[in-house]
């Protein structure tokens, strides 16, 4: 027997109310939801009519591609849609606020579902970050600050406003929402190139085959997600749980703040602090940010200004402990200088790591390398400093005699890091200053002042 959707709603509602007073029924509730989690058989004609009834400002025509993604989100991967229903209350109020402020279509609040699955800490393969998946350069162009400690691309408020600014700017260029979405996904250059190749057409479907493969899917995928979320109940998709945002207040900081110590001093759970401050990547706020607004639960605001002030002082005093932990973090760049190494013929990752006295795992992290494959000419970022990793295999390098010459002639394969380690009390920065170097590039035969 097929249970009707309205009857299904009553069952779920009754279970939810009952479970408030009887937590032990939650396991049975989950099993029942599994039993009744079926996808109703709704004809394509009905789906098309529902879609048209949405009357979206971003008018994406219903077609086979849109229908295929609707089927994906309502039948094949309905669990993903259910998870988005669970998370949406955490972020939709923020999205709606800024979209209204910038006079943008309300349906754009569904875009971060496609971008990040409503995960503020999402990081893609190409290193796009946050709910709105900003690349580093684009984020900085929109005013988002990023350093070793903090990445504002992960801050829901700051990133959402930046996304609204960026989308408004893109729309000002294309004057078309479908092309604006395509440019958000793949960049202005790819969309304009597709327009030229299509004979200077300016409709998404006319330039469709000239766009990158991912972008071809991106626009119909977005419209399908709007449909799936708006008609989730019609397709018998429910979430028995809802993630609820924690009300918070902001307190300004002026000194270093170690979140672990601050949490212990105030009695606020560290996990809650991390959830409210997703942009704080390493568990600490540096003093150079000056006035960073730390979010704490509103319910903890009544601990009093004196308690908060003492907690901030204690958190600042623990900078030494944090610094020690930070140097041991996988992929840490804390207190280190960056140099660029260009891979040469015969190089292997292990030898490069040994020669620069860094961990192979860190080298992989810094350069987003999955295995050990590197190519000739590839530029590797290497972070070196006084806290480098020394293993038993490279103690010979450490114990080499230190030359005392004030002039160094660059040999093939030399890097600024190698040279700085050979001369006592000379850093990479010092060598660059003494020789007026604007980059880390060296050529064999160059004569460098060392002191």
Kindly give the count of domains.
5
Broad structural category: mainly alpha
Binned strand content: 5-15%
Task: Quickly count the helices.
Answer: 21
The chain-level mean pLDDT equals 81
Total beta strands = 8
Shape: globular
Structure description:
This protein is mainly alpha-helical and 451 residues long. The chain has five domains: 1-38, no CATH class; 39-230, Lysozyme; 248-327, no CATH class; 333-400, LysM domain (Membrane-bound Lytic Murein Transglycosylase D, Chain A, Roll), CATH 3.10.350.10; 401-451, Roll (Membrane-bound Lytic Murein Transglycosylase D, Chain A). Helix content is 48%, strand content 7%. A two-stranded antiparallel ribbon has the order 1-4. Strands 2-3 form a two-stranded antiparallel ribbon. Residues 1-28 and 386-405 have low confidence and may be disordered.
